[in-house]
Design brief:
alpha+beta, eight-stranded antiparallel sheet, three-stranded antiparallel sheet, 19 strands, globular
């Protein structure tokens, strides 16, 4: 019920905001009051409604995001800068400028508060800590930091140094105590290289988890649940551990024993930073920036051209003459013209009377401004940058001869329309996916070991899956014979066959032609083919994008996959031989290959492993007490 009230409050607030911007101040004011009078309302909605109400009371329109950003950017004091970005965030919580602005300004305000705190100005520090804690949009880590420091300031105590916190954590005799002190050290000094509180917190988390498991095994469910909750809600706890903790918390809440999970930690003789260096050297890709359609290229790398952007465009001898007799020639998109005058008055077209005087075919002619675009053509290998600076991130290096539409000119840089989906990833982007502590535990699921699940349970997963229906025992045989996790095989097969309904799953007749080539059987060629068989391919092996059907059936024919069962069992051999023989037996290892980083990596997409886990995870969640084997890398 509470969730429904909050959703209604959001919808009502959005409607009131639209009325507000349309000048209906009284209507908006009435709805803002209704939102504030609701029995359940979160802090963010309340603050947003109060701010907007104040504007409506004064018969003022809500400021635009650009206006607020300009105002915030002009502030030079930490408190005013923070206040301005928080006010803007309240009105535009989805604007990245304000999300980043609140984060950055809260950091600056905390740094200032920390300085005056350690200089003995406790009251001044307290007021700023309170402001950070009570304001919306502040990152969780900074709020936690403010709470820790507020406690010291309230007690008129200075903030302890890193070595004090480290010593306190390592000397504590209880798992909970070590965890609490390591967490405080991490929150207060997250980037301290001398004491590495994050690593200390990881070890303390494992200790607390083991202690909690012991409580759980002894059926002290309440004690276990409280500690599981602490691990889940605390920052810095490795995500691979959080996944296990969440599962066992659910078990404890139903008075059930812990789940059966086995975790191995593989230690690698290089640091995470060294791993990142290697990965950055092989140009990892991301689709994170695919919606950023603006990019920049330096003017020295391109030629600027003006081109026609539509079909059947009339080049006229007179911009004020609409008759056909004034048409010198009709041209199509890509036709190059030279602009001689970009502000000529002519007859209206597309809501504008602005025309260009252009040179074409050695003549001075006229074309409407909306029918011409400026483009740049690369004259050499060139970098595409995120902003108009050579030090900014480079999305890609493009070859000579590439053409891009110009949006704007900024100094020596052209802002261009750039639509590439895949772009070079930033180091911080790669770190988000290569750092084991930030990954879902399912990325470390060992895929060359059995789950120990019965055929009946697997058949439940296959109940609506076409030809794969009731094939649980076949997947078990495939997994045991070739050393592949049955759930991984099922996930792979369901994805590739559209839940057992694709032509490759249901079977396709093929035969050999006179050249001994595998071809699809049709009525027109059946009499000319030999060795006609029906083939099956359950994992999309050999089915490349440009020849999915023909290549997929050829691979199946050449490998003798003439039944559904054979395709399931023997197709698993391909998965095992091509993925696991190099030791890459987890999704994480397939993507990053920590045994030999930079080599034999199965994708350039930095998010590949993360994107693969959803279906596997959903299947596992339908099983009852499966056996999990995880292999977690430690750098």
């Amino acid at each position: 019920m509470e969730e429904g009230i909050l959703k209604s409050a959001r919808n009502l607030l959005n409607w009131a905001s639209n009325q507000h911007q349309n000048g209906n101040f009284e209507t908006a004011l009435d709805r803002y009051n209704k939102v504030l009078d609701l029995p359940v309302i979160n802090n963010h909605l309340r603050i947003e409604a109060e701010v907007k109400k104040e504007y409506a009371l004064n018969n003022e329109y809500l400021p635009t995001a650009d206006q607020l950003y300009e105002y915030a950017s002009s502030q030079d004091l930490a408190s005013r800068l923070f206040d301005a970005f928080v006010d803007a965030y309240i009105l535009y919580p989805d604007d990245n400028r304000f999300i980043e602005g609140v984060a950055g300004s809260s950091r600056s305000l905390m740094d200032y508060a920390t300085r005056i705190h350690n200089n003995g100005n406790f009251d001044g520090a307290i007021s700023r800590y309170d402001k950070v804690i009570d304001s919306p949009g502040v990152p969780e880590m900074i709020v936690l930091e403010a709470n820790y420091k507020l406690n010291y300031a309230n007690n008129k105590e200075k903030i302890p140094s890193p070595d004090e916190l480290y010593n306190n954590a390592t000397k504590d005799n209880t798992a909970s105590g070590r965890f609490d002190k390591a967490l405080e050290g991490y929150v207060l000094y997250p980037n301290n290289s001398q004491f590495e509180f994050l690593k200390l917190l990881e070890l303390a988390s494992l200790d607390l988890y083991r202690y909690t498991l012991n409580l759980h095994e002894k059926r002290n469910y309440d004690g276990a649940i409280s500690r599981y909750t602490k691990l889940i809600e605390s920052p810095g706890v490795p995500e691979y551990l959080v996944a296990i903790v969440e599962a066992n918390k659910a078990q404890a809440e139903y008075n059930k024993r812990p789940t059966n999970r086995s975790i191995n930690y593989s230690y690698y003789n290089y640091t995470l930073n060294e791993m990142l260096n290697i990965q950055m050297s092989v140009n990892p890709q991301t689709d994170k920036y695919r919606h950023n359609t603006s990019a920049y290229i330096h003017q020295e790398n391109v030629n600027l051209q003006s081109i026609i952007n539509s079909t059947n465009v009339a080049l006229r001898t007179d911009p004020n003459d609409q008759s056909s007799s004034a048409v010198y020639e009709r041209v199509g998109p890509g036709t190059v013209v030279e602009i001689l005058n970009d502000n000529v008055e002519g007859f209206p077209y597309n809501g504008s009377t602005r025309w260009y005087q252009v040179s074409y075919d050695n003549r001075d002619l006229y074309v409407h401004s909306t029918l011409v675009s400026q483009v740049v053509v690369t004259t050499k290998s060139s970098k595409i940058h995120e902003s108009n600076s050579s030090s900014s991130h480079s999305y890609a290096t493009v070859k000579s001869g590439n053409t891009y539409t110009v949006k704007n000119k900024r100094g020596n840089w052209y802002e261009i329309d750039y639509r590439a989906t895949w772009r070079s990833a930033k180091r911080a982007d790669v770190e988000q996916y290569v750092n084991p502590d930030k990954q879902d535990m399912y990325q470390f699921l060992v895929l060359d070991q059995s789950t120990g699940i019965s055929a009946n349970q697997l058949n439940q997963l296959l109940r609506n899956s076409g030809v794969l229906y009731n094939k649980g025992n076949v997947f078990i045989e495939a997994g045991l014979k070739h050393g592949v996790n049955e759930i991984y095989l099922i996930s792979h097969a369901l994805l590739e066959t559209g839940y057992g309904t694709s032509p490759l799953a249901e079977g396709i007749e093929v035969g050999l032609n006179a050249k001994n080539e595998v071809v699809l059987v049709e009525d027109s060629n059946r009499d000319r083919l030999s060795n006609i068989r029906t083939v099956y391919n359950m994992y999309g092996i050999g089915a490349y994008d440009h020849c999915a059907l023909s290549c997929g059936v050829e691979y199946a024919y050449n490998n003798g996959w003439f039944s559904v069962n054979t395709a399931i069992i023997e197709g698993a051999a391909f998965v095992s031989n091509n993925y696991f023989t190099r030791g890459q037996n987890t999704l994480y290892k397939m993507r990053w290959n920590p045994d030999n980083p930079g080599n034999y990596q199965y994708a350039t997409d930095i998010g590949w492993a993360s994107k693969q886990i959803t279906n596997i995870k959903n299947l596992y969640e339908e099983l009852e007490n499966p056996i999990f084997f995880f292999d977690v890398p430690i750098y």
